Each structure stands twice: as structure tokens, then as C-alpha cells.
Amino acid sequence: MAYDAVQDKKKRTPPRSIIYSEDGHLTPSERRKLLATSHDQLRNFALAGWMVRKHTSYVSRFRFQAEADERRFASREEALGWKTRVEAFIERRSHRSRFDVAGRYSRQAALTLTERMAVLDGDHFWLKLKAGVVQLIESDLVYDPENHSARQDAPGWVHGVQVDATGRPLRYSICHRDGSRRVPGIRPRAANVLERAYRNRADQVRGVSPLSAALNTNQDLYEAFDLNLVKAKMHALFGLAIMKKSPQSTNLIGGLPISSTVETEGSAEAEDDDETTTVNDIKDNFVRPGAASIIELATDEDIKTIESSTPPQQFRDYSELMIHLALCALDLPYIFFDEKSGSFSIHRTARIEYDKSCAEKREANEELLDEWTLWQITLAVISGELDLPTGWTLEDVAWDWVPEATPWFNEKDEVEAAVTGIRAGIISPVRHCKEHGGDVFQNIDDRAKVEQYARERGVALDWSAAPVTLQQVPIRRDDE
Questions:
Q1: Residue 474, SS3 per DSSP
Q2: I need a surface site. Which of 108, 315, 418, 477 has the fewest CB within 10 A?
């Protein structure tokens, strides 16, 4: 038996027969259209903006934590001193005045922006400058205006990136803007460019936005919402219908005689005021927005309200399905969008599953921060701003970028479960603290400081005290 998926049975779109490199599926002009469409949706469609912001908030926030193995130092105080110096150094370098050449973004703000831009454009770049600061480079500015890719004798250029035979980047062609034009700029070596990209294939050079699969869905939703809003406004404007039962009263509206010679202007009147009615008279006898009105009807007239399901239930159901599919582009659970739906267990399961999907994206951002950190420490050691411990090389310096913890969903139950797991030896206290944005060693040091201060102040602390249970005392009545 053959695979049905490769058989053209004339019932659906024929199976594909050609495979290109992922970079070959987009020409430079098509790639720019994709980027422009993504940014337009971010500007104008609240759902697209929410998707990107929600995703970014989960995967782009990190805290620097230097590691100092006390066994490699003469004393515990020396190890803590080294840890403090490194963390203070990274904190200084993270300030916007020492991170961004334009002075706009701190390290954390730049990473948030980079993740957002990578989601929209497919990739985003940090250009390392001699002063130790970075310049943020948007995706469409990495472009080869000379179109080397079309030349047979030119080295391999792919969408503004020069690569060797193995696909490793050698140089980047970085342009600058002149209105809507991209003007050739510099071509730095790949070692001076840090990259955050979304790739799906082994031979892919440039990243492609994960939102590309949802752009059409988002556009359809945006237009459908607009059309249904127009429909709702039309129903609000034309909400009353006067029903006539007698054909002889065709020249009456709301009990008022209307002459066929009535002017269309609001101030126009017919010549005989006793037999005709002005347009203003008609307006005065019908419902006006913001004013109470009384409509006097003839004996053969009836008034009804035009009602319609706007938007209809079918449209709401379809929109919910389309929104669900659009959220799948970023692995976002639908329950994040509709927080009122679902039980406690569904919310908790959705968050756990989403956290798993965030792991790969957090690791990519952590690698970007690791490259920047190594560069910063190297510059600091060369300049003498940071002295390595005796006998150390750069390879001995260790650190960790700890992702910001997801808030507790049910803190009491989750903490009790963690304590039980740690006591049973199936959960590492070090790893568990890191997963929740903490440092177990820092926690111990902080507790020791609190206990020492309490002893000096004569205050007894009991960390193991059980929660106090209040007993209800019966109220004694006077007549008892």
C-alpha cells in the first residue's frame, strides 16, 4: 500500500513535489512584505499585539547570578566577594547608558525588544562595538543591496549574510535607512554580531517569524470584526420600523401627512402648512439620540423594534476557533485569552504545558545573554576593571542567567509539594529555587543574617512553628 498523502486523488490540493531551502521560499521582496505585514498587525490589531506581548513576557526576563565554588577560594568570604563583584559589574554594564550605543535600552529592555522583534521578523541582531556597547539591528536592515546571490562568481550570500560551504556565517551586510530605502552600510565579521533567530531547518540561514502561519488568520479576524461592527452600527441607526395596515395611509408617517413636494433640506417647508409637514416636523416626532421622544401613530400603524443577533452566534463560534488557531502560532493556550473559561485544573494544566513550550525559547535567549556576558567580562579583564582570582582564566568564570519565575498558581499546595519532594530526595533544592527565580545559597545567607540580627536584638525566631489553629469560644448568654 502506498502513502495516501502523496497520491493526487483530485479531491484536494495536489501534494508538493519540490523541496527548497527554507531561505529559498522567500525572495528579498517577499521577505520584506512578510515583515511589513507583521508590523502592521502589531500596530492595528489588538489580538496580534497581545499575543506578542504575552509570549515575550514569559521568555525574555532573566536575572544574572554569578557562581562561586567556595572550594576554589581561600575562604568563604573571598568567594562571596568575587560573586558580589561580578554581579555588580554585570549590573553596571546592563544600564542603558553602558549597554545601548543610543542610550535607549537597558540590557533587560533590549532583550525584551529583541524577542518581540524576532517573533515579528524572524530574527534580530546585536552589533558589538569597540566601546563595549551594542547597536540593535532590525531584521530588514540585514540585506544585500548588491544582490550577490544572483551572481555565479560571488561567494555565498543569503539574504544579507555571507556564509561558507558549511553554512556558517562569515559576514553580515548591514544597511541604514533613508526613508523607505535601504542604503549600503557596513559588513562586520560574524564574530561581532549576536543573533536571536527562529529557525526550523538545519540549512536555514535567516530566521522566519513563527507568526507567518497566523498572519492571514489575524487579517481575516481583523476585517471580520470591522464588518460586524459596521453591521451593529447600522442596526442601531435603523432600529425602528413603522408598519402600515391601510394602503390609503401611504402618505402618512407616524400620523403626519407628507406631501410629495417636501424639500429635502431640513429647513424647507411646503407652501400649505395645514396639509403638509416639514422634514423638521418628521424629525421632531421620531426618536432622537440622547433625547426622550414620543411617537404618535395613526390608528392603522404599528411600531416594532428591528432586532438582530449582532454578531450572530455562528460568527462568535467561528471567531473563537480562529483565535484559538492564531494563538497556536506562539503555543499560547486559548485559556490565557479567555480567562473566565475553564476550571482550576484546566488553568493549571495549560500553564504547565505552556511553560514546557517556553523552555526552548528561553534557552535561545539565555545563549544570547551568555555570549554578551563573556564579551563583557573579557573586555573588563583586559582593561583591568575586573581582576580574576589568582590562577584563573576566562574559562573558570561561571555564571547563570536565571529565567524569571512564573508566579505561584496555588502557592500553599505547590510549596508543600516541593518541601515533600526535597525531603524525599526527588527534588533538588538548588534546581527548584532556580526554576522559581531564586538562589538557595542566597536564601540561606539571608536567613543567617536575619537570625543573627534577631539574636542581637533579643528576638527569638521559631522557623519550624506550626500554624496556630484558632478555636471557637462559645458565647455565654445572660439568660443561660
A1: coil
A2: 477
Closest to 52 in 3D by CA, of 285, 322, 329: 329
**Which comes out higher in pLDDT, residue 72 or 247?**
72
Query: In angstroms, rounded to a whole number, what is the distance separating the alpha carbons of residues 28 and 173?
Result: 13
Angle between helix axes 215-237 and 28-44 (nearest 10 degrees) is 40
SS3 (DSSP) at 226: helix
pLDDT tens by residue, 140-189: 999 987 765 555 445 688 999 999 988 899 999 999 998 888 999 999 99
134 φ/ψ angles, rounded to the nearest 5 degrees:
-115, 155
Q: How far apart are CA 308 and CA 310, in angstroms?
A: 6
* Closest to 200 (Cα-Cα) out of 183, 190, 212, 218: 212
- Whether the model clears a pTM of 0.90, i.e. scores above it, the answer is no
Is 264 a residue whose pLDDT tops 60? no
Residue length, the chain? 480
* Gap between the Cα atoms of 449 and 294, Å rounded: 78
DSSP for 277-332, please give it. --HHHHHHTS-BTTB-------TTEEEEE----SS-HHHHHHHHHHHHHHHHTTT-
- The domain limits of the chain are 240-305, 405-459
